[in-house]
Write a structure and sequence with these properties.
This protein has twelve helices and ten strands. The protein has about 300 residues and is of the alpha/beta class. It folds into two domains: about 180 residues, Rossmann fold (3-Layer(aba) Sandwich); about 100 residues, no CATH class. The strands form three sheets. Strands 4-5-3-6 form a four-stranded parallel sheet, with helices on both faces. Strands 8-7-9-10 form a four-stranded antiparallel sheet, covered by helices on one side. Strands 1-2 form a two-stranded antiparallel ribbon. A hairpin with an 8-residue loop joins strand 1 and strand 2. Helix 4 packs across helix 7 and helix 5 packs across helix 7. InterPro entries: P-loop_NTPase (IPR027417).
């Protein structure tokens, strides 16, 4: 049995072969996803957007706890892994088949659907929103924001307490790729620009205006990864600046004078990430509490 399925990388759908038994097994695991959704004459399509750790998953699961198909590729992968075992060589194919099944069943039955993405690149999701409206869905965008220190703490807690936690930072393109397949939108824009590189450079605060003093860290294929790395470097620098007994104001001053100041570079100029905007007294206070707990 041939099945055209989505692609984790957001490229054109792949054609894969499954036995009838495999198809039924995948369907049994995937079925609870679409069964939770309610069919309506004017179905709803809700998108939660926000940075890593902003609370998208918490809000999605609370406000759409019933009557919605929760189409999240990370959660689909977890269900398939539990059903087939993480060492199953065909697990990636089953995950793709399940994603295609769930979305096809949901859209054709006009069920309410909710997803979550970072939402940092509108050219990826705007075509999906427009097409969902065309086929009769009422769309709603929910923007979730919080303080950087709160997001950082929530993300660390999720990683530590939930072994199945997968951030939408890693799954948003895969999630959206199934909509491109189901809605026949063609190739995702991000797939066209895969060769674009984002270099993270690190300046020191001795010479904040002299980029010649900066050293290269790593090159990333997406801006999201590059910005995430900038935040990691900045937080590591704050931790290294910590001394027992220091207060938040002093830690901020210490970092401003001697800490690492990362930024993203493409060859066309610096892209938006400001460590000086990212580092606040609130973040410094959070770092101090974390370091005191380690002691």
């Amino acid at each position: 049995m041939e099945e055209k399925v989505g692609n984790k990388e957001g490229d054109q759908p792949k054609v894969l072969n499954f036995t009838g038994e495999e198809y039924l097994e995948v369907g049994e695991i995937a079925k609870p996803f679409w069964e939770k959704g309610v069919s309506e004459n004017l179905p709803k399509f809700v998108i939660y957007m926000g940075g890593v750790g902003s609370g998208k998953t918490t809000m999605r699961r609370h406000h759409q706890s019933s009557g919605y198909v929760h189409f999240d590729f990370g959660e689909i992968c977890i269900a398939m892994e539990k059903g087939f075992g993480k060492d199953n060589p065909k697990l990636p194919n089953y995950e793709l088949l399940a994603g295609s099944m769930i979305l096809q069943e949901s859209v054709e039955a006009k069920k309410n659907i909710v997803i979550e993405i970072i939402g940092d690149d509108e050219k990826l999701f705007i075509p999906v929103i427009k097409k969902m409206k065309e086929i009769g869905y009422e769309t709603s965008l929910q923007f979730i924001a919080c303080k950087p220190e709160d997001a950082y703490g929530r993300h660390l807690k999720a990683v530590e307490e939930d072994k199945d936690y997968i951030s939408s930072f890693y799954t948003q393109e895969a999630t959206l790729s199934f909509f491109y397949e189901q809605l026949q939108l063609g190739k995702m824009p991000e797939a066209v620009e895969k060769d674009k590189k984002y270099l993270v450079k690190v300046d020191d605060n001795f010479h904040p205006m002299d980029t010649g003093e900066a050293y290269d860290d790593k090159t990333y294929s997406s801006l999201e990864e590059a910005v995430k790395r900038c935040k990691e470097i900045t937080i590591d620098s704050l931790m290294h600046s910590y001394k027992k007994g220091i207060n938040a104001s002093e830690l901020l001053e210490q970092w401003m004078a001697f800490g690492d100041d990362p930024f993203v570079y493409t060859g066309e100029g610096d892209l938006p990430f400001s460590a000086r905007d990212f580092v606040t007294e609130e973040l410094c206070l959070y770092i101090i509490k974390e370091m005191e707990n380690i002691e």
